[in-house]
From TrEMBL:
This is Sigma-54 interaction domain-containing protein. It comes from the Bacteria. Keywords: ATP-binding, DNA-binding, Nucleotide-binding, Transcription, Transcription regulation. Gene3D superfamilies: 1.10.8.60, Homeodomain-like, P-loop containing nucleotide triphosphate hydrolases. It holds the Pfam family Sigma54_activat. GO terms for molecular function: ATP binding; DNA binding. It comes from Acinetobacter puyangensis. PANTHER family: TRANSCRIPTIONAL REGULATORY PROTEIN (PTHR32071), TRANSCRIPTIONAL REGULATORY PROTEIN FLGR (PTHR32071:SF21). SMART domains: AAA. Residues 21-250 form the Sigma-54 factor interaction domain. One of its GO terms (biological process) is regulation of DNA-templated transcription.
């Protein structure tokens, strides 16, 4: 079993980050193949995925397979940086640059010299920091806060986000030029519910890992427990699975984990397709029917409604939000399109009907 573990997995217990990633599911194997293709290059990479899917672990795997593997890997959570501290943390500062700056300090970019810097939650950076990051990507140099001297750096940038950056660009919250600079290579990490083949191997890994930590024999999963793990939709992804296994280990009896030993939230998760590039997961020749069969097997809730919403939204965007053109494209009446747009929250009921033809 191919597994990627976070080097500080025990310190992640109280976070939402994934501590391990396996590549047993066919979709995960395709992801690993794609990682192996892009890792040796110097291209910037944008990783997209829900919270807890293992974005940092994938970034570490890209670094490990690159020519920079023996150089630093520096992970920075941009969401945890305040606007006032972000510049000093990322780019460093000179003595006297601000109150409390009693000495020169290198930033995370200089700390990653020769290696890779991973910028998680990149969408949370302020516009002013986005400008400076764009300059680094363009010029390969950094200017410390309080200095007028630039320093050359050699760093590969991998960024990650769990938000729709394209929407942030349209809203004016994220620079379009920076977005395309980051997205030289991009990959979308599927949520755990869409890579079912990884669930039981991951569960077994966590059982063995926590059993060793607790100094006890590893229990086994009952058939009902195994079925529940595969059927559950995992809105919290790998982190939720790890927590569920940890809890089950603490209360299970007679060396057997039963289905009722898990503490699962029961939250439902909506299917989201329009913002994801899933091309790396689709084998050559796979048609729409085969993709639908996979979704049927996964038991996605309200699939018909969700597909209708996705198709309607995609057609509406393709037609530049013209209702008449959208209706013609889908072969239905304008009244039906308008009703669907309102139904799926894509149009206010008070919005006047577009009559442009």
């Amino acid at each position: 079993m191919e597994i990627v573990k976070h080097p500080e997995s025990r310190q992640l217990v109280r976070t939402v980050k994934a501590s391990a990633y396996v590549f047993e599911d066919q979709n995960s194997k395709r992801l690993m193949s794609y990682i192996a293709q892009i890792a040796p290059s110097e291209a910037t990479v944008l990783i997209i995925g829900e919270t807890g899917t293992g974005k940092e672990l994938v970034a570490r795997q890209i670094h490990a397979l690159s020519n920079r593997k023996n150089k630093p890997f520096v992970a920075v959570n941009c969401g945890a940086l305040s606007d006032t501290l972000a510049e000093a943390e990322l780019f460093g500062h000179e003595r006297g640059a601000f109150t409390g700056a009693i000495s020169n300090q290198i930033g995370w970019f200089e700390a990653a010299q020769g290696g890779t810097i991973f910028l998680d939650e990149i969408g949370d950076l302020s516009p002013s920091i986005q400008v400076k990051l764009l300059r680094i990507l363009q010029e390969n140099e950094v200017v410390r806060l309080g200095s007028r001297q630039s320093k050359k750096i050699d760093v590969r940038v991998i960024a990650a986000t769990n938000i729709k950056l394209e929407e942030a660009v349209y809203a004016g919250n994220f620079r379009e030029d920076l977005y395309f600079r980051l997205k030289v290579a991009s990959l979308h990490i599927l949520p755990l519910r869409l890579r079912i083949g990884d669930i039981l191997p991951l569960a077994q890994h966590f059982i063995e890992d926590y059993s060793t930590s607790l100094k006890r024999l590893a229990p086994v999963l009952s058939e009902e427990a195994r079925q529940l793990l595969c059927d559950y939709h995992w809105p919290g992804n790998i982190r939720e699975l790890e927590n569920a296994i940890h809890h089950a280990l603490l209360i299970c009896k007679n060396g057997i984990i039963q289905s009722y030993d898990f503490q699962l939230t029961g939250f439902k998760h909506k299917l989201s397709l329009h913002d994801a590039d899933l091309s790396i997961y689709q084998p050559a020749g796979q048609n729409l029917k085969q993709i639908l069969f996979e979704w049927f097997e996964q038991g996605i809730e309200d699939l018909n409604e969700q597909l209708e919403a996705e198709i309607t939204e995609a057609a509406y965007q393709y037609c530049h939000e013209n209702q008449l053109h959208t209706a013609k494209l889908l072969g239905v009446s304008r009244n039906i399109i308008r009703a669907r747009l309102i139904k799926h929250g894509l149009l206010s009921p008070n919005t006047r009907t577009s009559t442009v033809s």
